[in-house]
């Protein structure tokens, strides 16, 4: 290596090292201390238990990695049909035109930990009484412990007139539908940023993953319009599903002020009920009845529910606020099923308030796995999940607010007194862009 | 109930740099070592050479900040609160120290004869 090379590489190393040290709080570098102690290699638990992990997304892969670290001799079986792994927080950057679709795509196989196996099929049935899951080909897989990590279903079908194949055309965007749809959404938004007109933003009335994402995309669109000098040609409207802009009151209030500052008009209690893609008219259910709104660009975010296999199983909530969409009935501080103690629900599928982010997965998995391992050893576990949820709320390209909170709507900043959660900061943006994906990938490997 | 785990920092850093990680670590160690070797060889810090490297180091600081903006699709207008200025200063300092060190090495290699005349 020549000295010039050393100079260049050395500077990069120094620079990135500094950034990553400061960064990664979007997925919070802090870890619950009890489980991390127990993960000492010397503490590995010998067992012949058969553990099935349904779903190999963020929560499923992270769970398998932790199980492989902590158990010796266990049979760990992941079941997921999708071969591609999606780093979904990257969808927002793709839809901002900053990354290509490939940024969010990798292969599930690359993250399967040693000692675990993968069945490339969908789970078609879960029988928690018979302690068996059945795959779509009819293969029965019995288990001693089950971790359900099937994420959630995007229910585009619930919006009459919606057609995901038309995302990217005629002003239709939808960041959530996948990496290619996110890129197509950018194409549509970019055209809108040239022509101007009416931009419509919204969120569903159901629980949703990353509740900040609809807000982020409103801010990003505003920013792109300004950069092109066309903000004056556009009117942006955000239709909130209830009387707030965010479930955490102090954050909701901050977003209200920012929307006012950016000239984004807000309607409360407006829920998308139908869309006419040809005529570009969206219909919203509101307290005053159905309201039709013409648009030149819209970011459709569909209702979200537990996957059908969970909704149809005995694992879903039978009553209460999480029953209608079939979220899993788990204890909110341990993620253990309330009626079937050998079953855990982690990630988006869990029927708990808050918690539907990759950052939450990072906190949930060590807790759930600690309780599962405690179930094997017979020792109690003190690990608790407090509802930690985080979402770097992008307020323009180059700035974000590092919003972190818990079940009780408390802000839980990773760097209190250093990085203000409700301030638009460059450092929070830098974290989102540089450190979030590496932290996420390290989490999949059980290293973060 | 939180603690910052150095092992996590390490694996995140590894994930950020990917295949570059170990070559960079090796490069940095080598540069550090070479600097020591040069110091021992010259038996002192050659002051005019050091002054020159410090000037080049300033450029290194500016380069580090520029690189951070390029890599993160942002610019000076995005500096929001005090912590952003702190990050900028840290970046400048790191780039400056790295640049100075490397420049000193380079000059020592290019003009080793001038050692006695300082
Ligand atoms: C646009 C967008 C932006 C986001 N931004 C952020 C952010 O900034 N920060 C953040 O922390 N989080 C963010 N998130 C949320 C984050 O991506 C999710 O919360 C996280 O991926 C949840 O992990 P999971 O394992 O529960 O679900 P997923 O990662 O979705 O994985 C679910 C897996 O289950 C599989 N599966 C489904 N049904 C079955 C079945 N029947 N049988 C077998 N397998 C099945 C699927 O194939 C998939 O692989 C964002 C999400 C989106 C869409």
UniProtKB/TrEMBL annotation, chain A:
Highest rank taxon of the organism: Bacteria
GO molecular function: FAD binding; sulfide:quinone oxidoreductase activity
InterPro entries for this protein: FAD/NAD-bd_sf, FAD/NAD-binding_dom, Sulphide_quinone_reductase, TAT_signal
Pfam families found in the cross-reference section: Pyr_redox_2
Source species of the chain: Aquabacter spiritensis
Domain FAD/NAD(P)-binding: 50-162
Name assigned to this protein: Sulfide:quinone oxidoreductase
Species classification: Bacteria, Pseudomonadati, Pseudomonadota, Alphaproteobacteria, Hyphomicrobiales
BP GO annotations: sulfide oxidation, using sulfide:quinone oxidoreductase
Automatic annotation (TrEMBL), chain B:
Protein name: Uncharacterized protein
Transmembrane segments: 20-39, 51-71, 83-110
InterPro entries, sorted: DUF5368 (IPR035308)
One Pfam family matching this protein: DUF5368
Keywords: Membrane, Transmembrane, Transmembrane helix
Organism annotation: Aquabacter spiritensis
